[in-house]
Amino acid sequence: MAWTIALFLTLVFGTLAILTSWVPPRGKLYLFWARSWAHAVLFFACIPYRIEVPDETAALPEAIFMSNHESAVDILVLFLAIPQDVRFLAKRSLFYIPFLGWSMALAGFIPVDRERKDRAKEVLHDLVDRLRKGSSVLVFPEGTRSRTGALGTFKKSGFLLALKSGLPIVPIGIQGARAILGADGMRLNPGLVVVRVGTPIPTVGLGVSHRRELMEKVRGEILRLTGRV
Fold first, then answer.
1. pLDDT digits over 36-56, tens only?
2. Among 183, 135, 180, 139, which Cα is nearest to 159's?
């Protein structure tokens, strides 16, 4: 029943997002529908959640958000946890999903093709351009959902974006989502999702030589926010 309701809500809110995609500025109204969709799905799926956002982070105009990723539930709670005008990096296959993917494309979300590494520079240039226009970006530094729950190896692209743009990185730790819905599962289990948004980590003045140090710092913060250290 929960999956049927989720599909119905995706159809309804996806259609609304598509029909209003022409309203400028591009993507702003989409986030309203996306957050309404996320709230409705969590409500009807009976998934309780708690979001903790420090005032310093909530007041940021733009940032690069980085979160662990263990479950499809992550997307829902992240829409609600990030108040900024944000766009997600998402695998290209999601953009082919009727209504959901179509609305994401119209809203300016960024498709990532893991098989086309030759397009990495083009995607990075596009992201920097979007950041300069006032949008924030959400990156999953692991690149994909964790199958074990352990925090995987970080990819360098999101950190290069932060160093190139000079925007702060905001780490996010999600706890409990995998217990409710695993990376490969379809069954919903009872549980509470806790989203802890960290404080900004500045990147201004840092060069590429600081990338590894920055990656370790963000990794440590995400582990702390998920209660693993």
1. 999 999 999 999 999 999 999
2. 139
C-alpha to C-alpha distance for 71 and 215, rounded to whole angstroms: 22
Q: Do 172 and 56 form a contact (C-beta atoms < 8 A)?
A: no
pLDDT at 118 over 60: no
Cβ atoms of 14 and 36 closer than 8 Å: no
The fold for domain 48-225 equals Glycerol-3-phosphate (1)-acyltransferase (3.40.1130)
Asked whether 151 and 142 are in contact (CB, 8 A), the reply is yes
C-alpha torsion 63→69→73→79, nearest 10: 10
The predicted-structure confidence for 123-158, as pLDDT tens digits, reads as follows: 667 777 767 777 889 999 998 888 888 898 998 888
Q: Report DSSP letters for 160-194, one per residue.
A: HHHHHH-PPEEEEEEESHHHHS-TT--------EE
Which of 130, 135, 140 shows the shortest CA–CA distance to 62?
Answer: 135
Q: Which two tokens stand for residue 213?
A: 């140090």
Q: Is 197 exposed, middle or buried (0-12, 13-18, 19+ CB in 10 A)?
A: buried
Q: Which residues pair with 175 in a beta bridge?
A: 194
Residue whose tokens read 């009727």: 98
